[in-house]
Amino acid sequence: MFDTQQRYGHTAKKMITLTHEGREQIQTFADAHGMNFSATIESLALIGMKADLTALLIPLLREVVDKAIQRNFNRIAKLSLIGAAEAAMAHDLATMLLLQLIRQEATANPDYFEDVMLVSHDPADELDARIRAMYNEARQLARSRQQRLLETPLQELVTRLTDSAIEEDEEESDA
C-alpha cells in the first residue's frame, strides 16, 4: 500500500468531530471514488474553498489509479500464474507423449529407431512431406484455437478456468 505522506506531502493528524450523517456521506463518497477517508475530506474541503482544481485533481486521480491497480493486481497475477501453470502442464503432457512414442519405436525397431523417428525436410520424400503437412495442419488448427481464446472476454476465461478447476478437484476427490 502507498504511504499517504508520499502522495500528499507532509501530513499531520487532526482530530475533528463530524455528525454521523456527515461521516456516512463522506465515507460513501470515498468508497464510490476509491479514496481513503482523509483524502476525501481534504479534497472536498479544498473544493468547497474554491481551491485550484487542477492542482487538486492530480492527487485525486493518482489515488483513484493507485486503488484500481491495487484492486486488480491480484487478479492479473492470478491469471498470469494460471497461464504459466497451464503451459507447464501442456509441456509435461507433450513430453510424456513424445517419450511414449519414442519408446514404442524403440521397442518395435530397437536397432534403428533413431532413423525411423526422423522426419525429413526433403520435399522429394513423399511420406515425410505428408507427415509435415499433417503437422502444419494441426499447428494451424491450434493457432486458430489460440486466436479464439485470445479474443474471449477475460471474465468468461476466468469462469471457464474456475469451472474446470472445480471439476478436476471433484474428479480427484472421487478417485
Content-based structural category: mainly alpha
What would the average pLDDT be, to the nearest integer?
82
Beta content comes to: under 5%
Q: What series of H and E elements makes up the topology?
A: HHHHHHH
How would you sum up the global shape?
elongated
Radius of gyration: 30 Å
- Which range best describes the helical content: under 10%, 10-25%, 25-40%, 40-55%, 55-70% or over 70%? over 70%
Number of strands: 0
Q: Compute the number of structural domains.
A: 2
Low-confidence stretches: 1-7
The biggest beta sheet, please?
Answer: none
How far from one another are the termini? Answer: 43 Å
| Number of alpha- plus pi-helical segments | 7
Give me a quick take on this structure.
By secondary structure, this protein is an all-alpha fold. The protein has 7 helices and no strands.
Task: Give a written overview of the molecule.
The protein is mostly helical. It folds into two domains: 4-69; 119-175, no CATH class. The protein has seven helices and no strands. It has helices at 4-8, 20-32, 37-48, 53-108, 113-117, 126-150, 154-174. Helix 2 packs across helix 3. Mean pLDDT is 82; it is low at 1-7.
